[in-house]
Amino acid sequence: MIFVGRGALLTRAVRHALSTGHRVDGAYTDDPADRAALSSTGVRAASVVSDINTHADRMRGECTDGVVWSVNNWMIFRAPVLDSGLRVYNIHNGLLPQHRGLPSVAVLFALLNGESEYGATLHQVDAGIDTGPVLAERRFPIPPDARYHQVLLRGVRACHELFQSTLEAVAGGRLPTAPPPHGNSAAQPRYYGLRSLSRLGAYADDPAFARATDLGALAPHLPEIAGALARMTPRVK
Asked: By Cβ atoms counted within 10 A, which residue in 4, 61, 158, 225 is the most buried?
């Protein structure tokens, strides 16, 4: 199996796969720190400069079981990878289809929209963005007083827990059964990208605004959201 992504979620997933006896054929990341962290595991970590799809032939030649895990991955898989015969599975921070897009933005609007649940989703990757078949999920409630940084971090934990619980099934070709629709999963799906941040002003007077935008210690890692908030009027900072 091959891993594509970045950050602690990527390195933890690789280490867990190795610790449970799975062969990891390689990892692809755009972060030099990840490559350094993975070097101690014996896994070859390749540098991705801009487009993961330029590595499709190399990935196909390296992957011994045909499985590619996308973990905390912002790169979009296109035809070169999707048509290569590799089976690509993504661990998404958010429930699909209602939390498509950037998790950092989806969490923000989940709180502003008064949603009662968040979580993580395992889905097969197709040509769309977060549109492939849902295979498994891990849900958790959003407490009434939850703050942004708490929900986002709980989502990160849910992602790793979901990876751990589905690794054996995916590796063995026994895909989990898709969960039935539940709770707010019937809500109208949106795509939460950076453009969604332009709608923040409409929520400025919402009682949930302060906690929904409380980035906490995560602020330095979320420059786009911190910047959008900083550009709002002093009245709503």
From this structure: 4
